[in-house]
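re: that complex we talked abt at group meeting.

here r the seqs, copy pasted straight from the sheet so there may be weird spacing, ignore it
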Amino acid sequence: MHFSEPLPLQSGAALSDYTLVYETYGALNADCSNAVLVCHALNASHHVAGSYEGKPKSDGWWNNMVGPGKPLDTDRFFVIGVNNLGSCFGSTGPMHNNPATGKPYGASFPVVTVEDWVHAQARLADRLGIKKFAAVMGGSLGGMQALAWSMLYPTRIAHSLVIASTPKLSAQNIAFNDVARQAILTDPDYHDGDFYAHGVVPKRGLRVARMIGHITYLSDDDMAEKFGRDLRNADYQFGYGIDFEIESYLRYQGDKFSEYFDANTYLLITKALDYFDPARTHNGDLDAALTNTQAEFLVVSFTTDWRFAPERSREIVQALVNNQRRVTYAEIDAPHGHDAFLLDDARYMSVVRAYYDKVWRQLGERVPAAQREAA
Amino acid sequence: MHFSEPLPLQSGAALSDYTLVYETYGALNADCSNAVLVCHALNASHHVAGSYEGKPKSDGWWNNMVGPGKPLDTDRFFVIGVNNLGSCFGSTGPMHNNPATGKPYGASFPVVTVEDWVHAQARLADRLGIKKFAAVMGGSLGGMQALAWSMLYPTRIAHSLVIASTPKLSAQNIAFNDVARQAILTDPDYHDGDFYAHGVVPKRGLRVARMIGHITYLSDDDMAEKFGRDLRNADYQFGYGIDFEIESYLRYQGDKFSEYFDANTYLLITKALDYFDPARTHNGDLDAALTNTQAEFLVVSFTTDWRFAPERSREIVQALVNNQRRVTYAEIDAPHGHDAFLLDDARYMSVVRAYYDKVWRQLGERVPAAQREAA
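got the structure back, here u go
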């Protein structure tokens, strides 16, 4: 979907025009009341569910959560996945030409925020005729978008599902993001963000950035369970190749990531993470930031998530309770750290399923009585 | 101290000859029974205590712990600090010439282990006429050396003080070390370890490595307390410079480190950390590994140390108890994470002081009665 009206950004800059790539699943009902927006995190995209014909291994990133008969049931809901601005999977981003210069934006692509993304998503909703979402849902950075929706467009969202997220990053979170950025920024192949023109990619930096990130997605226990101190060979190698299986795993993850992800996107998305702090403009008072929300909420956290720990989710819940909002909170005892929000866990899945059953019942109750009888 | 007899290493390699740089504090008594060896961690050196004349800011790295009247009292004990082999503060290391080639060792400097260091330290003790240490003490990687001493030279160590350490690194610990190594190894200025010949230093890699390491030395809470989300400027900068004070702090630490630390040393010392696992040759049974120890032990951990958590120290304590060894354990409720072992904390300091009082009393009891009366 192309948008030719400029999008003013939180930074004061603006995008003169832009494209949003999106996918939809299921059917929009007659009164456009069954739409659910699913927001992605750092390295995901609009491809939330299903797989592409003839493309094996092309499952959507939340395919276990979204689809026919799944917790977010596309037989009931019209689900939309949007690739965010600045990302590298089709929507306007740093690798696209800046219409003002005719050259790729590179590092000059404006630093966008969670709030900017939400405004762009709202315009997409306008175009699709969706006045109000039945729900906006996301995990991690996606959860921040779901939370921001409830504050920025309180009348346009009935439910907000905030999974494995936080009302703001901690100093330690920011520290990890900044080391990752420094790895990219100081890679000689980064060329101040204009690496496209040089025909290179700052793979070394991206690789290290991803390895750092990946450590923070897994729990200490899970890593111990999966890899422990398992050796690749029978004995220590006394060199700097691979000794431990965990090294092999992380290097592989880093290599793979550096093949497909854009370095400028990595930088700007981690900045969006760092900047998110809705309480900031309310003197740090999260209660005040959430005062104008009207949605009902599901907040989910995972016990071993040390990146966005349950304590952070509880802050959101407490602030919502203080505002007398309806909120359901589940703290799932899962071993997989932050990554748990993407994985199958029977209790997690059933909590989300039950919540969407409620959303669905509420929708049904809103259908005019005559229409219900006819059905 | 130069050693011309070859040192066989755990890897199967050997150092044909080598030099150990060391410092001593206090006086060795007549029966050479009051010697204490202090072992250093990743980036420290033989300069444990005191300061160099005319050099401001040259305090030893454990100057709060070691000195006249301090917990490890140099009016009582003869304290030795040794720079380990492969380090970059004077002892033979990667930046020194390999006698076989006449060129700097670089990455060809053999990967040494904690056990190799202990054997080298034992030779230094031989030269100094020290048959048995009153104590061997260290924090973090230094604690591993203190523990290894108790196993490798059970009759040559009366007390082992193992502070903020672990019997082996976890998968997560190894993961952080490997990312740091990858940052260095993939820095184009690393030149396969021969950067000395190129007149460059892989500063970018060292800087990122240190930033990663530094995050793991601090606790999440301490970072939140010290830096939180404090901004450098009044508002977000919407760029990749410094927004948050934590970024400024970490980049500064990284810059400083990259100015003085050797990249090959960083690689090999992190390998020594990864490889330490005394239970490994006993089918993972730490009890069995500690069976032949004769020393008494002080084990200290810090509640907010998530790098080497209290649980790891408790494993050591449990294994010692299972072997019916005398062990004192203190778990200090300190906010400063792994770094706490280097900082002043009244309870920590008084535990160590009380322990050395005991060591001192035991020494006195060993002085022949006639000599005691004459004194």
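couple things i noticed - Chain B touches chain A through 55 residues (CB under 8 Å). Residues 368-372 of chain B have pLDDT under 50 and may be disordered.
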